[in-house]
């Protein structure tokens, strides 16, 4: 995992998981997990697209108060 964006996203997910935030919305959490796994296996433009989806979904995830995860404001509509 040499990509700083993926590294930060995985750190943020680990922090959220440690706080139990993965239980707030298990289906969305599974989606985040799948995106992170896919991003680590891909390269090039496809990887960047998956990373962007991961960052966007992570910012909208309930319980995103962990450092480096999204900005404040109301949650995004699904």
Overall description:
With about 80 residues, the chain is mostly helical. It has one domain. About 60% of the residues lie in helices and about 0% in strands. It contains three helices and no strands. Helix 1 packs antiparallel against helix 2. The protein is globular. About 10% of the residues have low confidence.
Structural class: mainly alpha
Helix run count: 3
Give the distance, in angstroms, between the N- and C-terminal Cα atoms. Answer: 29 Å
Please indicate the percent range of residues in DSSP E strands (runs of 2 or more): under 5%
- Annotation, overall tally of beta strands: 0
- Which consecutive residue ranges, at least 5 long each, have pLDDT under 50? 66-74
Query: Which range best describes the helical content: under 10%, 10-25%, 25-40%, 40-55%, 55-70% or over 70%?
Result: 55-70%
Whole-number count of domains:
1
The shape, in one word, is globular
Summarize the model shown.
Helix content is 62%, strand content 0%.
List keywords for this structure.
78 residues; mainly alpha; 3 helices; 62% helix; 0% strand
Set out the fold topology:
Elements: H1 4-18, H2 26-41, H3 44-60
Helix pairs in contact: 1-2, 1-3, 2-3
